[in-house]
Amino acid sequence: MIELRHAGKKFRQGTRQIQALRDVTLVIKKGEFLSIMGPSGSGKSTLLNLMGGLDQPTEGEVFLDGRPLHGITDNEVTLLRRRHIGYVFQFFNLLPLLTAAENVGLPLLLDGLPFSQVKPRACALLRQVGLAERTEHRPDQLSGGEMQRVAIARALIANPAVLLADEPTGNLDSHTSEEIFLLLKSLNNQGQTIVMVTHDPKAAAYGSRIVTLKDGAPAQDISIGEH
Amino acid sequence: MIELRHAGKKFRQGTRQIQALRDVTLVIKKGEFLSIMGPSGSGKSTLLNLMGGLDQPTEGEVFLDGRPLHGITDNEVTLLRRRHIGYVFQFFNLLPLLTAAENVGLPLLLDGLPFSQVKPRACALLRQVGLAERTEHRPDQLSGGEMQRVAIARALIANPAVLLADEPTGNLDSHTSEEIFLLLKSLNNQGQTIVMVTHDPKAAAYGSRIVTLKDGAPAQDISIGEH
Lengths: 227, 227
Ligand SMILES: Nc1ncnc2c1ncn2[C@@H]1O[C@H](COP(=O)(O)OP(=O)(O)OP(=O)(O)O)[C@@H](O)[C@H]1O
Ligand SMILES: Nc1ncnc2c1ncn2[C@@H]1O[C@H](COP(=O)(O)OP(=O)(O)OP(=O)(O)O)[C@@H](O)[C@H]1O
Ligand SMILES: [Mg+2]
Ligand SMILES: [Mg+2]
Hints:
- The structure is a homodimer.
- In chain A, α3 packs across α4 and α3 packs parallel to α5.
- The mean pLDDT of chain A is about 95.
- In chain A, α6 links the parallel β7 and β8.
- Chain A is globular and about 45 Å long.
- In chain A, about 35% of the residues lie in helices and about 30% in strands.
- Chain A is of the alpha/beta class.
- At the A-B interface, α5 and α6 of A face α5 and α6 of B.
């Protein structure tokens, strides 16, 4: 489903080079629920961005369903991404002038569906993440954890083949987090492939596998029982 | 030090009213280390904003060192705030065109000190939060947890009487979080008053008292041993 071969990412900073990711070789099978953990700055968001085609590797290769994500045009990446990937950004990236329902519905609106057809599905997803009462709020009228849940609902609305989630519960209390993990677990049971970056060991326990990064490279790769 | 008397906050949303905070009466003594916990949307950020004069109550009163924060002009609030309060926002609010060191030094620069005098102190604080190697990076060249730590350092640079921190470790792994809590604990031991919103029970254990909000009102107020 997603494959990286000796993928790396260098950033230039002034006169220095920062090797954010180094030599990552990783295969994520269809239906897997992978958690990526590791210290702050260890390369987790960078890795997720490469998987989602949001950034290009500076070394090595990245494939989505056998098709290369590296070295293709922006337009090609955008099309692949919209059809296949739901992305929850570490800082949500909601559009400030749209309501929660409009933000959630955006991927389908961009695909040409009318809002009258999209809104019921957007509201159903918002209900699933506990925000039935907040559908008409704009981002500046929402709490941090409410914005985060809007972003999660938005990532799910187009039934993407892969869900990539960067710290989806960083702003949520343990009770609300648990509701989100149960939702993700049930989606995974129905076949949804999920890659989740998290700092929360309890979160990682919901998945089937944990990869831990250290200084830009995988240091540990553990499969969790019960298959 | 900080006192709220029957303080409340209503938001208008379309035709509805949202009572984000209701009837909060609370005293925070000098030198206290208070944690505020509660579910997503329970009013924690709203409460912290009232304490820091970033928002005005719609009912009741808020005092900082005996002086009212409610019902005074914006200029008066800004002056009080700059002299007395260090604020870590839930979403950092760093200036994108400034480096980490410049962002940290900003409160002192705004007070008229030259950067040549400010920079050594800013870099020392960045070292304390583990970012000695990131002083010249701009926010878009930093990871989520690195941006969060820059915001923490910025809140501390002017030696404020009160530190108000909204989820200061939401984007940090447990090891880095622990380093931040030990830093806050040692500042508190030296007399720093701290009010911290957190979802992390381990975090709350570093303080001397935990107030838990539920639907906009304090539901529990527990003092933790060892004084
Ligand atoms: N400008 C606004 N207009 C309408 N409702 C608002 C506004 N700002 C906040 N709210 C609502 O007030 C409630 C409290 O918000 P607040 O940001 O204080 O919650 P919180 O406890 O910090 O949540 P979180 O843990 O998710 O950050 C939320 O339900 C939110 O939807
Ligand atoms: N554009 C950039 N220029 C220079 N360095 C960068 C850039 N973007 C990221 N970095 C650096 O690359 C490293 C990895 O960043 P990344 O965002 O992947 O970390 P992370 O594991 O997601 O951290 P966190 O848990 O704090 O979110 C960080 O040390 C960061 O400073
Ligand atoms: Mg990150
Ligand atoms: Mg909040």
